[in-house]
Input
Amino acid sequence: MHEGRGRLADLVRAAREGRGWSSYGLAFRAVVDAKTVRDLEARRVERPTPRTLAKLAAALGLPLDELERAADRDAAAGAGHDG
Output
């Protein structure tokens, strides 16, 4: 994993765990697939769709722009790297 990446994953995980929810519990509340949450938190998702970010933000009670900024920083940190 490249340094600087994973801000979105860490933000979502911390918010979810702070509420005492499992990844399945977040997925249920956000109306997304549980695999989506697991993959996001495991940093297997490069950039979630805007719709997924909006659903996660609403379920977690976080500002959408906070999740978008974290996703943007992750994308910028990964730009130009071949893994």
